[in-house]
């Protein structure tokens, strides 16, 4: 892939991955994934992070192409998750004199992953600590739990660049054209969604810096109207509502619960609801469904009573919501049960720790829709507008 300029003295040396089947073991990435790395060339030379182990040679070739015979002085490790750290040992085989820069939480993790102390040449930095490259000074800002505890971001005041670790990253390789928000949202909600409070803390720290360029570890380098990206991150990390609309997530065994979900969707559209998303949880990309639940302010869950519980896809979906601190939403429940309906009780119980939920009246179906159910769905649609 080679390299490209971010600024006159900062180079992109990352790689595109179109081989990964499931990113981080669970996310489908139809447009692949990028693992970003950067080289800062000053009086001293620093490499920012490494890449997934399957691409270490391509990455080392990119670095060599930038350096044209020179050697890097520093390898800065902002995050120890293997999509960024797995090639540290390979780097140090080629550049054994480079000093590895991390914090007090970085190096024990490095030891755990590599089974040995691979970085005896190290500099341990503190929160707010600095590293002079001669012309410019880098400042390290700890960002614990965005997305692991050792994460730090790095600010270059000379070029006004924030190296943001996983923050502002997205799914998708860089050789595929696609809009930023869709796959950045699915990435954020899926991977960082639980950690809204730490992201809010990082955004507050970033607000005090003059940032012209954001260099994340996944996805494109961000320039131009950074307020657009910062605003979305503020909404997502504060569990705010990004878009007006209703998501209806359902499971159905013989089609009767599906019929209720679809009828509600039709009623909402007929009544002028700005956006209705209807999702079959047994057949969708779960990460996309979770993303939609966080994107919109109103959610309807429709499922069957099953083994005295709820249908498994719905249980998994709600688990994904609650483990990401689902809150600040309006929720309606549709349950179906032929002899002892209890799905609504199970679903509301699973969500009982979610903060600031407005509950609508539950609709209970006994096997198939009745005229009374249709009237109840009509009332639910009115309550959702
Ligand atoms: Fe891209 Fe948390 O690793």
Oligomer: single chain
- Work out the helix count: 12
Rg calculated over all Cα atoms: 24 Å
Calculate the terminal CA-CA distance, rounded to whole Å: 50 Å
**What's the overall geometry?**
elongated
Q: On the 0-100 scale, what is the average pLDDT?
A: 97
Largest sheet: 7 strands, mixed
Contiguous uncertain segments of 5+ residues: none
Tell me what you see in this structure.
A hairpin with a 4-residue loop joins strand 12 (152-156) and strand 13. This protein has 385 residues and is α/β, with parallel strands linked by helices. The chain has twelve helices and 21 strands. The strands form four sheets. It has a seven-stranded mixed beta sheet, with helices on one face. Strands 15, 16, 17, 18, 19, 20 and 21 form a seven-stranded mixed beta sheet that branches. A five-stranded mixed beta sheet has the order 10-11-12-13-14. It is elongated. The mean pLDDT is 97. It binds MU-OXO-diiron. Residues 79, 81, 83-84, 147-148, 166, 217-218 line the site of MU-OXO-diiron.
List the helices and strands and how they pair.
Blueprint: E1 4-5, E2 10-12, E3 15-17, E4 33-35, E5 38-41, E6 45-48, H1 56-67, E7 74-76, H2 82-85, H3 88-94, E8 99-102, H4 106-114, E9 122-124, E10 130-132, E11 137-142, E12 152-156, E13 161-163, H5 180-192, H6 196-207, E14 213-215, H7 226-237, E15 243-250, H8 256-270, E16 276-280, H9 286-295, E17 296-306, E18 309-310, H10 312-322, E19 329-336, H11 343-350, E20 357-359, E21 363-365, H12 371-384
Parallel strand pairs: 6-7, 7-8, 8-9, 13-14, 15-16, 15-17, 17-19, 19-20, 19-21
Antiparallel strand pairs: 1-2, 2-5, 3-4, 5-6, 10-11, 11-12, 12-13, 17-18
Helix pairs in contact: 5-9, 6-7, 8-12
């Amino acid at each position: 892939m080679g390299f490209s300029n971010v600024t006159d003295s900062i180079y992109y040396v990352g790689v595109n991955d179109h081989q990964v089947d499931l990113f981080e073991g669970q996310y489908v990435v139809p447009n692949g994934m990028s693992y970003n790395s950067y080289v800062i060339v000053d009086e001293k030379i620093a490499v920012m992070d490494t890449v997934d182990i399957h691409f270490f040679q391509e990455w080392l070739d990119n670095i060599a192409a930038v350096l044209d015979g020179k050697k890097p002085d520093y390898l800065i490790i902002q995050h120890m998750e293997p999509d960024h750290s797995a090639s540290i040992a390979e780097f140090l085989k080629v550049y054994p004199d480079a000093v590895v820069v991390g914090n007090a939480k970085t190096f024990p993790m490095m030891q755990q992953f590599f089974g040995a102390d691979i970085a005896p040449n190290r500099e341990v930095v503190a929160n707010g600590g600095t590293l002079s490259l001669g012309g410019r000074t880098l400042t390290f800002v700890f960002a614990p739990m965005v997305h692991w505890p050792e994460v730090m971001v790095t600010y270059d005041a000379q070029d006004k660049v924030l190296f943001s670790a996983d923050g502002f990253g997205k799914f998708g390789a860089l050789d595929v054209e696609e809009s930023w928000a869709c796959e950045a949202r699915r990435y954020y909600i899926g991977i960082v969604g639980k950690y809204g409070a730490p992201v809010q803390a990082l955004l507050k720290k970033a607000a005090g810096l003059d940032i012209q360029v954001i260099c994340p570890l996944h996805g494109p380098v961000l320039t131009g109207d950074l307020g657009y990206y910062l605003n979305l991150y503020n909404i997502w990390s504060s569990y705010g509502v990004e878009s007006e609309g209703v998501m209806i997530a359902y499971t159905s065994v013989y089609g009767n619960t599906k019929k209720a979900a679809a009828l509600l969707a039709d009623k909402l559209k007929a009544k002028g609801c700005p956006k209705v998303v209807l999702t079959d949880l047994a057949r969708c990309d779960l990460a996309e469904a979770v993303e939609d639940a966080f994107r919109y302010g109103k959610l309807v869950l429709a499922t069957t009573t099953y083994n005295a519980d709820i249908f498994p896809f719905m249980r998994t979906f709600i688990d994904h919501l609650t483990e990401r601190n689902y809150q600040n939403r309006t929720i309606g429940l549709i349950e179906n049960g032929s002899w002892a309906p209890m799905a609504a009780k199970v679903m509301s119980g699973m969500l009982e720790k979610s903060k600031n939920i407005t509950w609508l009246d539950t609709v209970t179906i006994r096997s198939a829709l009745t005229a009374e159910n249709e009237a109840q769905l009509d009332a639910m649609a009115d309550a959702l507008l």
